[in-house]
Fold this sequence. Notes:
single chain; alpha+beta; 3-stranded antiparallel sheet; about 20% helix
Amino acid sequence: MKNNTITKFEFNLARYIVANEEGSELILEIDYKNKTFKVSVLSGAKEPLFMNDVERIAKGLIERKHGENFAWKFQKGKIDN
């Protein structure tokens, strides 16, 4: 029987819900492969400062996670199922 070791595990598309203290919620959709993101309002007002914070977070996530292979985390029992 062949060993089924995971050799590639990368972020591709992700969707996050981000909320602030005022009760506004945004949807952050990140396309890690193409280094793009989209922010849309889920509930509450479209607050410019909140939108800017979420955009800054998105850019940071793309910078850190784009093209990173997380397969090593699944090898030799490093992550439980």
